[in-house]
Design goal:
The protein has 253 residues and is α/β, with parallel strands linked by helices. It is built from eight helices and eight strands. It has a single domain, classed as Isopropylmalate Dehydrogenase. Strand 2 and strand 3 form a beta hairpin.
């Protein structure tokens, strides 16, 4: 892969090992400091991309700005959203809310040519308000694992209630198709795996318990990533954004 023999990597192995191997083999695109682990989430209006969800526990402001660019391109080229709305995860919608990291990132994202909609809160993850959700790896991983646990618990509770008595079983039988569609929308295998963005190649990290459908979709995403040349586009975008941010700061000085 380092010699250009392959454009992508798909693995259901240990996340840390796959990230380290991918970074060593592919290398980072020029202008990107760190790779970001992204995930595609179902929302009330379609899908959203959240990053970082675990690759970088501690981040600096420019890292999150780069993550925003990565998520924008992935959402546009792979998810198929023409003008992705980029939201910054915080503890309040107001610009003044959040820690120092969030406040500085908010200030920087206002300068770049992105469809930045400002801060969003945890309750906005699934309502479709943002197409790209930007956060540090610590926050993203906690949000992702909480979501996974909640979805699993809700599905189990629904199953318990729908099999509690004969009347409930009858109602479940009549609603079987609707429940199947809901389960499919929440099924991780429909999204393949978590792309590691910022590399000179496509690296898709699948869940350890991935089934055939998940691997198939992960390969599809890697193929689309390579066909759209997302890594080359990211290089150009990072250079443009760097000029926008530094240019604005130079004008102020």
């Amino acid at each position: 892969m380092h010699n250009g023999e392959a454009a992508g990597l798909v693995s259901a192995g240990n996340t840390g090992a796959v990230m380290a191997t991918s970074k060593m083999i592919f290398g980072m695109v020029p202008g990107a400091d760190r790779p970001a682990l992204a995930t595609v989430l179902p929302t009330l209006t379609g899908h959203s991309v959240m990053l970082d969800v675990g690759a970088n526990v501690e981040c600096k402001p420019h890292h999150l700005v780069q993550f925003a660019i990565m998520g924008h391109l992935f959402s546009k080229k792979i998810v198929g959203i023409a003008s992705p709305r980029v939201g910054l995860m915080s503890v309040g919608e107001e610009e003044s809310k959040g820690n120092d990291l969030v406040k500085e990132v908010h200030h920087s994202l206002k300068k770049v040519n992105l469809n930045f909609i400002g801060n969003i809160e945890g309750r906005d993850i699934y309502n479709g308000r943002a197409d790209v959700i930007v956060c540090d790896g610590f926050t993203g991983n906690v949000a992702l694992k909480t979501s996974e646990g909640l979805i699993e618990a809700v599905l189990k509770l629904m199953k318990e209630e729908l099999t509690r008595n004969m009347q409930a079983r009858l109602g479940a039988a009549l609603s079987r198709q609707a429940f199947r569609r809901l389960k499919k929308r929440l099924d991780y295998s429909e999204y393949g795996g978590a792309p590691l963005l910022g590399l000179r190649g496509a690296s898709i990290i699948c869940h350890g318990r991935s089934n055939g459908n998940a691997i198939k979709n992960a390969i599809r995403v890697a193929k689309e990533f390579a066909e759209h040349k997302v890594d080359a586009m990211l290089t150009a975008e990072l250079n443009r954004i760097d000029a926008d941010v530094n240019g604005s700061e130079d004008n102020v000085q």
